[in-house]
Design brief:
Layout: E1 47-53, E2 73-81, E3 87-89, H1 92-97, E4 99-100, E5 103-104, H2 106-112, E6 121-128, H3 136-141, H4 143-160, E7 164-169, H5 175-191, E8 198-204, H6 207-210, H7 215-218, E9 224-228, H8 263-272, E10 280-285, E11 287-291, E12 313-315, E13 326-328, E14 333-341, E15 346-352, H9 355-368, E16 372-376, H10 388-396
Parallel strand pairs: 1-2, 1-16, 2-6, 6-7, 7-8, 8-9, 9-10, 10-16
Antiparallel strand pairs: 2-3, 4-5, 11-12, 11-15, 13-14, 14-15
Helix pairs in contact: 9-10
């Protein structure tokens, strides 16, 4: 049984009327109703966590519109860090001022929704890509800045009644930064002890980004490691590829990384450093990377402009785009091929995760004894039978 401080009570149990296991046998396309089953402490528990970025409110997706019944933890993204260590909300209007769901601010909305989903945990994620992580190194290196970091996170925890924090430093690049990262997490855990608070951290799924981090020690201070098993391919590369493959390709003369980097290789590396399996959440992208002008993997890619590499990311709710959904079952990857003109060129080969590949990864999670799945981000998910979050939840809890 996993520690109760890490997971809320399990979402499924025995049918109180029939005495049968709640998940039962599901028809194709059918999802478990997380609100139907009684709670029990005798079944395996898996996390099904999501990131919710504050800018999704501007897409017309307030917290109340999300399928939170399938969600164990919400990582609210993002708070940022000033050079002096002050942790602050990156968009105060979206976070605590905009009228939404009968209150003000998306963060307040999520907290208020806990009356409807009392097992759901809400954590504030600090950092993120680009500007969100640029000050981590200088802050973590300075003792006074670290104390300012602790002071301001404490203020936020009290103000918003948070269940914890997620440190999303992307990513410590040197041994010194990795050591400072460890000390920052240790100081956070001292301030926010378990089981009263949850502390998690997000890490890239590739070994090159993990090699300086002492996972053997760090895992002792966190409840989860959110392993970002995606963005293995994208606009920064000159060949098309799967960006969230679960398994590596056997051979690839065009891209050696495709034979090294995968969700499984990242999990294996982290486990090899002594991290307990139940502390690992495997990341699922709720978006696709498009490679215009290509119709498969390992093809030259120059972007829609012809010579300039341009980022092309498509929310999952808009996929498949221009063609049928297809799968590479050996690699655990989904894709479509789009030859339609989409206001900037043909999307071509689009790599993403589908409900089928998410279920495949959920079975992998159970086989490996991992802690569960997480998704970036729930605001890009589809509804009904196409929902990745619902598909992952259902497969994780089908016995």
């Amino acid at each position: 049984m996993y520690p109760s401080s890490v997971f809320p009570p399990p979402f499924i149990s025995l049918n109180p009327d029939s005495g049968e296991l709640g998940s039962g046998e599901l028809e194709s396309g059918e999802f478990l109703d997380p609100n139907y089953f009684q709670l029990s402490t005798y079944l395996p528990i898996y996390g099904n966590a999501v990131y919710y970025p504050n800018w999704r409110i501007y897409d017309g997706k307030p917290p109340s519109s999300l399928s939170l019944g399938y969600v164990s933890h919400v990582f609210y993204a993002f708070a940022w860090v000033k050079e002096d260590g002050t942790v602050y909300l990156s968009d105060e209007y979206a976070d605590e001022q905009i009228p939404v769901d009968g209150t003000y601010g998306c963060l307040n909305s999520l907290i208020s929704l806990k009356w409807q989903f009392p097992e759901m945990k809400v954590l504030l994620s600090i950092g993120g890509g680009g500007e969100g992580s640029q000050n981590f190194a200088c802050v973590a290196r300075n003792a006074l800045s670290v104390e300012k970091f602790i002071e301001t996170t404490t203020d936020l925890a009290v103000k918003f009644r948070l269940d914890g924090f997620d440190v999303n430093w992307e990513h410590p690049e040197t041994p010194q930064e990795a050591a400072d990262y460890f000390c920052l997490l240790a100081r956070l855990r001292e301030q926010f002890p378990s089981p009263d608070y949850l502390l998690t951290t997000a890490m890239a799924g590739a070994q090159w980004a993990l090699q300086n981090i002492n996972l053997t020690y760090i895992h002792q201070y966190v409840d989860f490691i959110n392993l970002m098993a995606f963005d293995f391919a994208g606009h920064w590369m000159r060949q098309s590829g799967h960006h969230a493959q679960l398994f590596t390709q056997q051979t690839n003369p065009y891209n050696a990384d495709a034979c090294i980097i995968s969700g499984d290789s990242g999990v294996s590396y982290v486990l090899g450093q002594g991290v307990p399996a139940y502390k690992i959440l495997l990341g699922i992208p709720v978006y696709g990377h498009a490679f215009p002008g290509t119709n498969g993997i390992n093809q030259p890619y120059e972007g829609p402009g012809g010579t300039e590499l341009e980022e092309m990311v498509i929310d999952y709710c808009h996929l498949p785009h221009g063609g049928p959904e297809m799968h590479d079952d050996a690699l655990g990857a989904a894709y479509c091929i789009d030859w339609t003109d989409d206001g900037g060129g043909e999307a071509g080969f689009v790599s993403y995760d589908s409900t089928k590949s998410v279920k495949f990864k959920a079975r992998y999670v159970k086989q490996k004894g991992l802690g569960g799945l997480f998704y970036w981000d729930i605001g890009a998910d589809a509804s009904g039978e196409r929902s990745l979050v619902a598909a992952g939840y259902t497969e994780l809890h089908e016995f």
